[in-house]
Each structure stands twice: as C-alpha cells, then as structure tokens.
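Entry for the shared binder. Reason: the reviewer on the internal report wants the predicted structure included alongside the sequence.
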Amino acid sequence: MTSRPNRRGMDSVAINNSAEGGRTGTGSVQYQLRQYAESTLGKASLHEAVLLPEGESLDEWIACHIVDFYNHVNMLFMSVSHHCTDETCPKMSAGEGYVYFWRDGVTYKEPTPVPANKYVRLLMKWIDSQLDDTRLFPVDLGQPFPANFRPDIAAQILKRMLRVYAHLYWHHYPQICQVGLATMLNTSFTHFTLFVTKYKLVSDTELQAVKDVIKILA
C-alpha cells in the first residue's frame, strides 16, 4: 500500500495524482499545499492564504495548517518560555477573565489546574501524539480522514492552540517584542484566526479571550 510521507516534513501528501506528479517529493500534496500557502502569504493578503486551492481536500488543507500552526506556536512559546515559570504564570490564563484547565482523558481524567508552562508542554506532547496517530491523521493514500476530523479532532487541537496564542498576548507580549518576534506572532495569529473562522473550527466563545487583539490586527 502506498503511503504519504510524514506531514511534518516539507514533503508529504500528493495534490497531483498523476503518475508524472508522483506521490512524494516536490510533487506531493503537502509540499504543494504548503508552497501554495507560503507563496500567497508572501504576495497577497492573508485572506487569500486561507482559501482552499481548487480541487483539493479540505481535510488535508486543515491538517496541513494544523502542522504549520503547531510549529509556529511552539516556536513562539519556546522563545519566551524562560519568562513563563510556575511563579510568574501559576495558571494557564488569558488575563483575569479566562483560566484554562488541562484534561487529556488519560493521565488527567478531569479538568485540572496546572501552571501555564506545564499546560503548554502537555499540550504540545498531546498534539504530537495526535499527529502521529494514523487513525486521526491518515498516511495511506486513499485512506479517508475520520468522519469527525473537522468537528472534533481538528477543532479540539485548534481550540487549545488558541489558548497559547491568548496567553502569549496577555502575559508575554513585551517579551515577544524584546526578542523581535512581534511581527511573526501577529502574522501567525492573524493567519490562524482567519483560518479557523473561515472553516468554523473555533467557536466565537473561545475567541472572546482575544477579541481585542483580533480587532487591532484586522
């Protein structure tokens, strides 16, 4: 059975199903989708960057973006993680109005308060395991994504990613500016919010924590 290469590499899933395009390398879907998104980001608006390329799978487009947003938010948080300690951020929050508890259904069976840095570490490990689960993110060509991929799997991952963006804006934006990553954070977050609202992957309730940031960046 033919397999897709790992989504985390630049080479992955095929857009072009012709024999000439091949299933790997620069003819692969994941490579082409990422190239398409990056080229759009470079020369047009972020509104265009979220649009599904004609004829492509929406599930694959969402999976591609989940990997990219995961890489962005992980790098952004790591750049200021030494400022996010048990003492400075004893809870995972976005200001005083939003506090997030951790639950994974395995080690943490009930919503549990944890320091922000631990929440983010647990989240990244959890997302990692989701991405590696081929039942959730199939790697065999022709194998469909699960029926609940968008409403449950993708939405849950993206909702939790949003909380990291929110924490960064509320509690670490000065440090983000100090390390010269404010433009990257703002661009990544704008791309993220346009994408999740376009495909209705994160609720308006969750977005309330960063509604002022969204207005400023609009």
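Summary line for the report: The radius of gyration is 18 Å.
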